[in-house]
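Reminder to self: tokens first, then the designed residues, so the page reads top to bottom the way the pipeline ran.
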């Protein structure tokens, strides 16, 4: 059973006001599965495609994963705020693919949103260039067939899902050991990648079926 968080009293006007352009950045409101937080993506001008990648990962790819694949993440739901601001960056200077921002370290955008809405708001960042270049495991271990150039875009999608969920887990459970959070998101990456590859290679498996074990 998923707990549905109470709906926000008056989000639309405030969120629309915060959407649009703020100092060289643009905002996009993303609604995924109703049980999951709203995401407010904040991205540099010119990075609309990267923002749409995050939107597709959250609204399309993640909800279509098998129940078995999603279930470890459903434990996060009661601990997540109703709205999460996602700051998209090209890269993080430290090389990380993402961070969660502990309470008190959020950007002005998030602090303003939290005070306007009077509700819990969280913040994470994700680094889209870093995600593109990330090489989590030898892809040769998968049955790739003649995937060729599509592989890079499948990797970006799977890695975006994994990094997003990794940082949302930190936001929900900041004290969980990194090793465990990392183990879960690596397994998520593998499952998403296998599912995407299977769906693309027309092997008769779709995202709604169990992906073959690599
Ligand atoms: Zn870092
Ligand atoms: Zn981590």
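Designed residues (214 positions):
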């Amino acid at each position: 059973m998923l707990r549905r968080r109470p709906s926000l009293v008056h989000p639309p006007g405030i969120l629309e006001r915060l959407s649009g352009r703020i100092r060289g950045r643009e905002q996009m409101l993303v609604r995924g599965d109703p049980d999951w937080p709203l995401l407010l993506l904040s991205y540099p001008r010119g990075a609309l495609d990267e923002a749409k990648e995050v939107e597709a990962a959250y609204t399309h790819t993640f909800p279509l994963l098998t129940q078995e694949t999603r279930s470890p993440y459903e434990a996060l739901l009661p601990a997540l705020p109703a709205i999460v601001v996602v700051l998209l960056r090209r890269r993080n200077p430290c090389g990380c693919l993402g961070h969660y921002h502990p309470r008190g370290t959020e950007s002005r955008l998030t602090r303003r949103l939290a005070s306007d809405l009077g509700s819990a708001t969280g913040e994470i960042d994700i680094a889209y260039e870093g995600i593109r270049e990330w090489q989590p495991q030898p892809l040769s271990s998968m049955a790739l067939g003649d995937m060729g150039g599509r592989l890079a875009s499948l990797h970006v999608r799977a890695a975006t899902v994994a990094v997003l969920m990794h940082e949302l887990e930190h936001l929900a459970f900041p004290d969980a050991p990194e090793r465990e959070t990392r183990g879960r998101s690596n397994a998520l990456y593998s499952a998403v990648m296998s599912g995407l590859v299977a769906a693309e290679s027309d092997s008769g498996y779709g995202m709604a079926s169990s992906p073959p074990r690599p």
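The pocket of zinc ion (ligand 2) is lined by residues 166, 170, 178, 181-182 (CB under 6 Å).
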